[in-house]
Amino acid sequence: LRADLLIALGSNYSEERGRTVAIVTILDVSDRGAPALQTTIEADGDVVSSRMIGSKLHLVLSTWPRAIPSSPLPALLFSDIDALIPDITVTGADGSSVSRNLVAWQDFYYPVDPNGYQITAVVTLDVEAPDEPQQSVAVMADAGTVYASTTALYLTDTDYGYGGDMRETTDVYRFDLGQQGPTYVGSTSVPGRLLNRFSLGEHNGYLRAATTVGHVSRSGDNTAKNNVYVLGAEDGGLKVVGSVEDIAPGERIYSARFIGDRGFMVTFKKVDPLFTLDLSDPTAPRVVGELKVPGYSDYIHPLGENHLLTIGKDAIDVGDFAWYQGVQLSVFDVTDFANPQRLDVEIVGDRGTHSEALTNPHAFNFFPPTDTLAVPMQIAEGAGTHPSDHGEVTFEGLCLYRVTTEEGIEPMGRIATGSRDVQVDPWYWYTPWTRGIFMGDYVFAVTRNEVSVVPLDDLSATPLSLRLGSTD
């Protein structure tokens, strides 16, 4: 994207529209000391996900028709179609605005399976010409996991059905991302549920999906099985072209990653099996190797061509199940794909230690030029012997590590940010977050309230800090 434009994306409740509105703000930052508002775009709906490819912003929005759900069917049939379709409004810097339908009526699709009252819309905007309409599409279904490559976007349904039970199938919708916006390609279903967007990955036009069927129970009634399916656009639709099923019975997927024609999957009940998968033939995916180590990995990050860097939890085997312990960082060597090895492991804290990077990959920042990893940590120490006994929190902030395939994981230092729990009103608390950002020879610890910086070669130095919203 042009360096003189900044795109801000958020949501807010609109009293005028009586619903949540997604807001895209385009700022001219060519003069960094005086950013100027260029365009504001308001679209009916909550932001489910977004992708920026070149100058095209692809938004996935979830909203509902303006019709009242209890309206009699004849009233709906004879309603003005424009009254049922969500709107989008583009406002220029001079205050002039133009409104139109978010999606044209002919670009709505009926779902593979009946799936709720929501509208899930894929909306494309050209941020360099935001007032020019782009093609958009919508499915009458609730939104689940979203995955996008540079050429296609995939929607799936939610993880739970309307009875509150976990789904045993996942519907997948494919849209190709062209210059004028998304076009519908096809839909299909695969057995099982997705864990997150890393359970999906596209390569050479084929989508790979890792799913879990059934559930894991401490009572021994384990029905869980894990599968990998390969989906391709064939014969005018989306079809399953290959699969490998019944991986690690009795366990469920904790993390997955697809990189080129290789796949990696971690399941867990008491130990952490890392599976390697050969996906070079889309019609015949296969498990190649397996390694069992204590604990599990929640997120898998590529470390060069033949190594993986993961974050998860350590665990202690206590019979039919395991007790989670501290946060666990691991480096795996997958050079011998049939015989993966763990090169190094670093356990941080005791039971009760947590990192946002366990559930949010945006909190995990590995910077290859300096071989440096930054992850936010809330470290607890001194846990008791009972599984309900957590340690006392002794540190909250950013932890830095040097990570190489030669030396493994080496702690570098920490930047404390302190507690940032803030009560916004008497009924609402938000959980703090911390991000580590590398710029040149410095690392920045960014929170909602403060930015702190120290040199990478002297992490023990007193941080220089700027309180956001302050003139100090």
Structure overview:
This protein has 472 residues and is mostly beta strands. It contains 2 helices and 36 strands. The chain has helices at 73-77, 81-84; strands at residues 5-14, 19-28, 36-44, 46-53, 56-63, 87-92, 97-101, 108-109, 119-126, 137-139, 146-148, 152-156, 169-178, 181-191, 200-203, 206-213, 225-234, 237-247, 252-259, 262-268, 271-278, 286-294, 296-302, 307-317, 322-333, 341-348, 365-367, 372-381, 392-404, 408-416, 422-425, 428-430, 434-439, 442-447, 450-455, 464-467. The strands form 9 sheets. A 5-stranded antiparallel beta sheet has the order 1-2-3-6-7, with no helix packed on it. Strand 4 and strand 5 form a beta hairpin. The longest helix is centred in the N-terminal third of the chain and has 5 residues, at 73-77. It starts with a strand and ends in a 5-residue tail after the last strand. The model is unreliable at 420-430 (pLDDT under 50).
